[in-house]
Write a sequence for this structure.
């Protein structure tokens, strides 16, 4: 898993009015939860763009008032019309307690059903992964080589050593759908 370094300044004022003033200064209000303490701080909006607008899941090394914290993004809030970043919630992580984050899914291999004329369909772009933060993967890699025509891979079919999938077991991750061309070959 990749790391991202970010520094922030502690906040003294709270509420809607103070948050609006911070956003006018191109700052983003943030909270850090975990380990029994909640820290409110701000970061520069330009500094978090590479963290927010990426498909990768990253561990953030936060430096707030000279103190370092390891965290993952818990929640992002955007303006409904302008798509401006309004708020970030971070969750502090350590090597003792597992954390659950969403990780992108990557399909590898050439499915048997596609060779037979079917169409491979990725049904879920991200899966919830639960693990110690050092064991979190960059992507959940799913091999579809053995996937036949009309078959599917569910969360219950996926097994990994260092982490587990926290989604419901009957959620379909990928499937090969029959097409008109494949149906005509059968007839």
């Amino acid at each position: 898993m990749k790391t991202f370094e970010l520094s922030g300044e502690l906040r003294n004022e709270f509420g809607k009015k103070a948050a609006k003033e911070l956003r006018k200064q191109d700052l983003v209000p943030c909270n850090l939860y975990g380990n029994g303490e909640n820290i409110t701080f701000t970061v520069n909006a330009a500094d978090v763009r590479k963290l927010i607008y990426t498909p990768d899941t990253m561990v953030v090394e936060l430096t707030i008032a000279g103190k370092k914290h390891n965290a993952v993004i818990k929640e992002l809030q955007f303006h409904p019309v302008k798509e401006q970043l309004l708020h970030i919630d971070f969750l502090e992580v350590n090597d003792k307690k597992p954390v659950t984050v969403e990780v992108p899914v990557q399909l590898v291999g050439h499915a048997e059903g596609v060779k037979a004329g079917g169409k491979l369909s990725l049904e879920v772009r991200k899966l919830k992964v639960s693990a110690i933060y050092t064991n979190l993967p960059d992507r959940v890699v799913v091999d579809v080589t053995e996937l036949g025509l009309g078959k599917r891979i569910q969360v219950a079919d996926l097994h990994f050593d260092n982490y587990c999938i926290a989604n419901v077991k009957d959620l379909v991750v990928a499937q090969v759908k029959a097409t008109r061309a494949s149906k005509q070959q059968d007839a």
The chain has two domains: 2-93, 100-186.
